[in-house]
Amino acid sequence: MKKTNPQLITLIQQLRQMSKEQKVDIWKDIAKRLEKPGKNYPQVNLDKIQKHLLEKETALIPGKVLGNGEIKKMDIAAWKFSETSKNKIKQAGGHYYTIQELLQKNPKGKNLRIIGG
């Protein structure tokens, strides 16, 4: 692994470990996406997330969430968030999580939709 960010390295290791423990492929998929160069990480606007997210699903973004667009209540987990996106998610009554928080909250990876990348 050529990553230098210790938080990212730890996250990738946790994702791989949880994938093996829970026998869930989604975590291995996200780990592989995060191992790629950071310049290839998706940057997804809130309006695009809302367009593709089904009711009762949590969006999983292996990159950065940007604040463009108006949204309804939704839950989103991502590697990074812009301040604007955090504020809009809160104002809409939704929640935003780091991928590590989502991993702890939902180890089985149920009702997740990967958006971007």
Written account of the structure:
There is one protein chain. The protein is of the alpha/beta class and 117 residues long. It has a single domain, classed as Ribosomal Protein L15, Chain: K, domain 2, CATH 3.100.10.10. Helix content is 44%, strand content 22%. The chain is built from 5 helices and 5 strands; from the N terminus they run H-H-E-H-E-E-H-E-H-E. Strand 1 (43-45), helix 3 (46-52) and strand 2 form a beta-alpha-beta unit. Helix 1 (6-22) packs antiparallel against helix 2 (25-35). The protein is globular and about 35 Å long. The model has no long low-confidence stretch (mean pLDDT 95).
Strand content: 15-25%
Spans where pLDDT lies below 50 across 5 or more residues: none
**CATH class designation:** Alpha Beta
N-to-C CA distance = 20 Å
Radius of gyration: 14 Å
- N-to-C order of helices and strands: HHEHEEHEHE
Total domain modules: 1
Which term fits the overall shape? globular
Tell me which CATH architecture applies here: Ribosomal Protein L15, Chain: K, domain 2
Strand tally is 5
CATH topology title: Ribosomal Protein L15, Chain: K, domain 2
* Average pLDDT rating: 95
Structural class: alpha/beta
Give a summary of the structure in a few sentences.
The protein has 117 residues and is an alpha/beta fold. It is 44% helix and 22% strand. Strands 1, 2, 3, 4 and 5 form a five-stranded parallel beta sheet that branches.
